UniProtKB/TrEMBL annotation, chain A:
Protein name: Sarcosine oxidase subunit alpha
Any Pfam family: GCV_T_C
Location of region: Disordered: 1-22
PANTHER family (UniProt xref): AMINOMETHYLTRANSFERASE, AMINOMETHYLTRANSFERASE, MITOCHONDRIAL
Gene this chain is encoded by: soxA_2
SUPFAM superfamilies: Aminomethyltransferase beta-barrel domain (SSF101790), FAD/NAD(P)-binding domain (SSF51905), Folate-binding domain (SSF103025)
PROSITE patterns cross-referenced by the UniProt entry: ALADH_PNT_2 (PS00837)
Record key words, sorted: Oxidoreductase
Residue ranges of every copy of the Aminomethyltransferase C-terminal domain listed in the record: 918-1003
From TrEMBL, chain B:
Name of the molecule in the record: Sarcosine oxidase subunit delta
Region (Disordered): 81-100
Gene: soxD
Alphabetical list of InterPro entries matching this protein: SoxD, SoxD_sf
Composition bias, Polar residues: 91-100
């Protein structure tokens, strides 16, 4: 065993116990600001602390050791650690809408007015009625839910599960919407440094000095890591001072960004990293315009993993009693926060490192009751100061049990010979060696590797671009952290093309990292916990072993070891080492489970960012939106679009009255509808026609310049993708429209066809959906209306501009516009497109021009009624499961060209005459309402799947027919006009006898649109 | 993941949409039988290893890309514009599946 020198930093004043009666455990020193006391409450009790405290350090300063109840057995729990690995001290923070469950008191920064309460206890923390679960512990052993609550089966849902859920809670989420907002940032850098301890600061300094763009993330409010927690010296000065100076130098570098309070929670492919910055968590309420948290997505060429290490607890009976802590955490509370966590502190150590805790306690004027070293012998220079101060030193010994009602009052110490001793103490510091944090480098399905010399897992093959340094790489000595970090930072910057050599590593006081871990006490009394947060004891691991759940992944799931919110940061190796011992294998043969993001729990709100409520997605307004709003329009959300649904007028009782009036006006006079939401694609080039022929299923070879035609697009599997129109504006210039819902998908499909299927075609396509506002003007007076809009000189008479004509025109005295004579309503109709910037003006001009003819604006509801009256298929019919034949368009399909979907649509099942086909339906009793989704059955037939003949796809009340009408898909429909079937709708209690008819209810001879 | 678009540079994968195997060329619908077309439409390689696949840069330049990616490690060894890959395939007279 090597020696350890404990040299006090000369510059640090001797610590003396404070006589602050409000904080009886506060001592001198530390990095807290004593000039400004802060008030806070824990379980309603008023307490004080200082800026710089965490909730945990402030609780310890006040002598609060009992902080929570455990998950399963409701055992009293205290504070184990001083960092984000904390399994026990998890509390509810804040109140009301800001209440946050499962917050680790060890990372919650204290602010004035903070309110915290303990979780999972009833009625109170000190008296928890469910503590009886501990008496029933045999019931709650590993896999208990598979065994105990099996019979009778009916009891599970009604009794057992609610009971278990109530008993095993981990705090309550707020029941009101989060009043704060969350932000998202993207960042790029050369070198990302993960962790701001000695290795991370050295790496950032080395890379920053070379001029690299560096981002340094550290989860603490104050970077420095263990430098803030240890009495160490760097270049003859206190380590915390060196850290402060390093940070100041980094802050002065323009290419370096320091992100404190930021947890790097995930490592993703190709140098992508996720981090969450707790911008305002240390404040009672975020300042105005400041987010609560910010999610960072960082793209880094290189990364230095300097995340540090987590100390290992010892496993012995009663190791969960409040007052039992990690030895490094005791030093953190003492040296950083000026808090001595006990009046009589005992140290249980398997390493030289643990003796440092005893030395620090003595230096602070505290009492060391005993140091128990599990190793057989200890160098005299370690023992001497403890013995000189009256503390006992027991070597070759271990703690076999603890005593105390709600917190530690004594420990039981045994040795191999069976000697047994009891030592009074109120704090036990455990030092069992450290585990490098291998979570982040394992995120990309990589496994850590075992290093026997340090008895710990270290990073294995690192993700591309990442290097590990310092404790995270298994180099625990401070000198190695400083030099290893600098080397990693220099090398990372160099591979990004920056020049420079690393400065010589600073000098540190000597130290020893020698340790021989004790994986569990050889003999013990009471429950010995491996996983504190999920209450997994040694006995559970033994049970898993006996029952054959020995593979590490089975062990994890059977016992829930490592599955709590702390992802087993303090427990995984304890569990593995015990299973290794039970199975007689070395630890690396047991293997490790997989670590996944996030490293610590992340609020869903941080991922959602601004995308919540109405801001979940963007809202798109049509060009006539302002006019529609002015005129009392009712809107409907269709995808991102907010479309006018209908325009109620005074005296109209309900939406149907408004819609009926809009339909009647269009059919008798004229109406205008904003159809800008349709997808519009500009297609140009020598091979434009060849391209269109291959993506459409009907022929276009004969389409003359100045003509438009209905277009059907299939998928390659033969089903209909979408429908729309293609208009030929000139020899090599076409404009295609498609449906609103499929606009993006059709564009992607067209690009696929152009770039990948037929790259040799000389054609360019671009989406012009946003560039052109487009309005349908429909009704017998449509032409009269448009004459008042289109510049004089362009003849739109029926002879000059017949049905399906298209042309470039001008409006408003020279503004370019496009005019298409196409009709969705079945009336004489045009669609006129103007540049989007003129959309509002053009709409108002149309309304003005149509006023003498009684024009109405109509919305998507009237549009839908009229298309159903005409039997036009839309989204409900073109639903990805229908072929062109199914929706009655089989006759239009081209025979003499190849196109997407041509062969596959011919498959036997798709051409089966018994396949449901689109027809119309009328209720036999015209007063009866139809419901879309109703299934067709024979009259008098018993409902069954076998009897199902198809279903109603779309229904509407037709003001033209004064009856409900519908279109739908039914077997052999075309041959069954006049036949009656039932439209059966058990969900809404509908059962209506309907007559099969033509899907075209209005103007079947298509005379109106050609006048 | 990050994908190096030949036109836009290295971009976050949130800008891209995945399609799948950049497999064989589409048979001519007039000169083939349904069985060949069926294989083209439905049969896809799903390799554990180096895989040529199609991605669409919809939130960028709207290019379809042929990305060569190792499905076991996500390592991307090549990104080519689908149009150029398609033209090269035409000129060489092979299917892209054979070219892989």
């Amino acid at each position: 065993m090597s020696t350890l020198t404990l040299k006090r930093a000369e510059t640090q004043a001797p610590l003396a116990r404070s006589d602050n009666p409000a904080q009886p455990f506060r001592v001198a020193g530390g990095l807290v600001d004593r000039t400004r006391p802060l008030s806070f409450r824990f379980d309603g009790r008023a307490l004080t602390g200082f800026p710089g405290d965490t909730l945990a350090s402030a609780l310890l300063a006040n002598g609060v050791r009992l902080v929570g109840r455990s998950f399963k057995y409701h055992r009293p729990r205290g504070i184990l650690s001083a960092g984000s690995e904390e399994p026990n001290a998890i509390v509810e923070l804040r109140t009301g809408a800001r209440r946050e469950p499962n917050t680790r008191a060890t990372v919650a920064e204290l602010y004035d007015g903070l309110e915290a309460s303990s979780q999972n206890r009833w009625p109170s923390l000190a008296f928890d009625a469910l503590g009886v679960n501990a008496l029933a512990a045999p019931i709650f052993a590993a896999g208990f839910y598979y065994k105990t609550f099996m019979w009778p089966a009916a009891f599970w849902e009604k009794l057992y599960e609610p009971m278990i859920r109530r008993a095993a809670g981990l705090g309550r989420a707020a029941n009101a919407p989060d009043p704060d907002h969350y932000d998202r940032m993207f960042a790029h850098c050369d070198v990302l440094v993960i962790g701001g301890g000695p290795a991370g600061l050295s790496a950032a300094l080395a890379a920053g000095r070379m001029g690299a763009r560096v981002i340094l993330v550290d989860e603490d409010s104050r970077p420095g890591g263990r430098l803030l927690a240890e009495r160490r010296e760097i270049d003859g000065r206190p380590a915390a001072d060196w850290a402060a100076q390093a940070l100041a130098e980094l802050a002065s570098m323009p290419e370096v960004r320091i992100l404190p309070r930021t947890t790097l929670f995930g490592v993703y492919d190709h140098g992508s990293y996720g981090a969450v910055e707790r911008v305002s968590d240390h404040l009672a309420v975020p300042p105005a315009h400041t987010p609560r948290q910010r999610l960072w997505r960082i793209a880094a060429k290189r990364a230095v993993l300097a995340a540090g290490a987590i100390e290992r607890p010892h496993v012995f009976g009663g190791n969960d009693r409040p007052g039992v802590m990690l030895a490094g955490a005791v030093r953190t509370y003492l040296n950083r926060f000026g808090v001595l966590p006990g009046k009589r502190i005992a140290v249980l150590t398997s390493s030289d490192d643990g003796w440092r805790t005893a030395a620090d306690v003595l230096a602070a004027g505290g009492t060391v009751a005993a140091v128990i070293d599990t190793r057989p012998s200890v160098p005299a220079e370690l023992r001497r100061p403890v013995e000189a101060a009256g503390g006992r030193v027991l070597t070759g010994s271990f703690v076999s049990g603890t005593k105390g009602h709600l917190a530690l009052s004594a420990i039981e110490v045994s040795d191999a010979s069976g000697r047994f001793d009891q030592i009074a103490c109120d704090c036990l510091a455990m030092a069992n060696g450290w585990n490098p944090i291998v979570h982040l480098d394992s995120h990309l399905s990589r496994r850590p590797v075992w290093r026997e010399d340090i008895h710990a897992f270290v990073p294995g093959t690192l993700p591309s671009g990442m290097t590990a340094a310092g404790s995270a790489a298994g180099d625990f000595a401070l000198a190695d952290c400083l030099s290893g970090g600098a080397r990693a930072g220099q090398e990372a910057a160099a591979t990004c093309g920056f020049d420079g050599a690393a400065a010589p590593a600073p000098q540190t006081d000597p130290e020893s990292v020698s340790h021989t871990p004790l994986w569990r006490a050889p003999r013990t009394k009471g429950k010995a916990f491996a996983d504190f947060q999920n209450d997994v004891a040694v006995s559970d691991i033994e049970l898993a072993h006996r029952e054959g759940f020995r593979a590490v992944e089975l062990l994890k799931r059977y016992t829930t070891l490592g599955m709590a919110t702390d992802q087993g940061k303090t427990s995984n190796l304890a569990g593995l080492s015990i299973m290794a011992e039970l199975t007689g294998q070395p630890i690396p043969s047991v293997g490790t489970t997989v670590f996944r993001p996030p490293y610590t729990p992340i609020a869903i709100g941080a991922f959602a960012g601004h995308h919540r409520g109405k801001e979940f997605r963007a809202t798109r307004h049509v060009p006539s939106h302002a006019w529609a709003e002015e005129n009392g329009c009712v809107f409907v959300e269709t995808g991102l679009w907010l479309r006018p649904a209908y325009f109620p007028r005074k005296g109209e009782a309900d939406w149907m009255e408004s819609v009926n009036r809009e339909v009647d006006t269009v059919r008798a006079k004229v109406g205008v509808c904003d159809v800008t939401t349709l997808g519009k694609v500009d297609i140009q080039g020598k091979d434009a026609l060849a391209f269109i022929e291959r993506v459409t299923a009907n022929p276009f070879g004969t389409l003359a310049i100045g003509k438009a035609r209905y277009a059907i697009l299939l998928r390659e599997d033969g089903f209909v993708l979408d429908d729309g129109t293609v208009a030929r504006m000139s020899d090599s210039h076409y404009v295609m429209t498609c449906s609103t819902a499929n606009a993006a998908r059709v564009m992607q499909h067209l690009e696929y066809a152009r770039q990948w299927l037929w790259p040799e075609l000389d054609v360019q396509i671009v989406s012009i959906s946003e560039q052109w506002a487009q309005y349908a003007v429909a009704g017998p007076r449509a032409r009269d209306t448009l004459k008042g809009v289109i510049d004089p000189g362009f003849d739109i008479s029926n002879e000059a501009f017949p049905f399906l004509a298209c042309a470039d025109v001008t409006v408003g005295g020279g503004i370019p516009a496009r005019l298409f004579r196409i009709s969705f309503s079945g009336e004489l109709a045009y669609e006129i497109a103007v540049p989007a910037a003129y959309g509002d003006a053009a709409w108002r001009a149309i309304m003005a021009a149509g006023t003498p003819y009684g024009i109405t604006a109509y919305g998507s509801e009237a549009l839908s009624v009229m298309r159903i009256e005409k039997g036009h298929a839309a989204g409900a019919e073109i639903n990805g499961q229908t072929t062109a034949r199914d929706i009655g368009l089989g006759g239009m399909l081209a025979k003499k060209k190849d196109y997407v979907g041509r062969l596959m649509k011919e498959r036997a099942a798709l051409t089966d005459p018994q396949r449901p086909i689109l027809v119309g339906f009328k209720p036999v009793d015209a007063s009866q309402r139809l419901r879309a989704g109703s299934h067709f059955l024979g009259v008098g037939e018993t409902p069954s799947l076998a009897a199902d003949q198809g279903y109603l796809t779309s229904v509407a009340y037709s003001p033209s027919l004064k009856s409900w009408i519908g279109i739908g898909l039914i077997r052999g429909g075309t041959e069954r006009h006049g036949e009656r079937v039932r439209a059966y709708d058990p969900v809404r209690g509908g059962d209506v006898e309907v007559e099969i008819c033509s899907p075209v209810f209005v103007d079947p001879k298509e005379e109106k649109l050609r006048v | 993941m990050r994908i190096r678009c030949p036109y836009c540079g290295e971009r976050d994968n949130g800008e891209f949409t995945y399609l799948g195997d950049a497999g064989g060329a589409r048979p001519d619908g007039m000169g083939t039988d349904a069985a060949a077309m069926h294989d083209y439409v439905y049969l896809r390689d799903n390799r554990a290893g180096v895989h040529r696949e199609l991605w669409y840069h919809g939130a960028g330049c709207r290019s379809w890309l042929v990305v060569t990616r190792d499905t076991r490690t996500h390592e991307i060894s090549d990104v080519t514009s689908a149009r150029e890959a398609g033209l090269a395939r035409r000129n060489s007279g092979t299917t892209s599946g054979e070219a892989a």
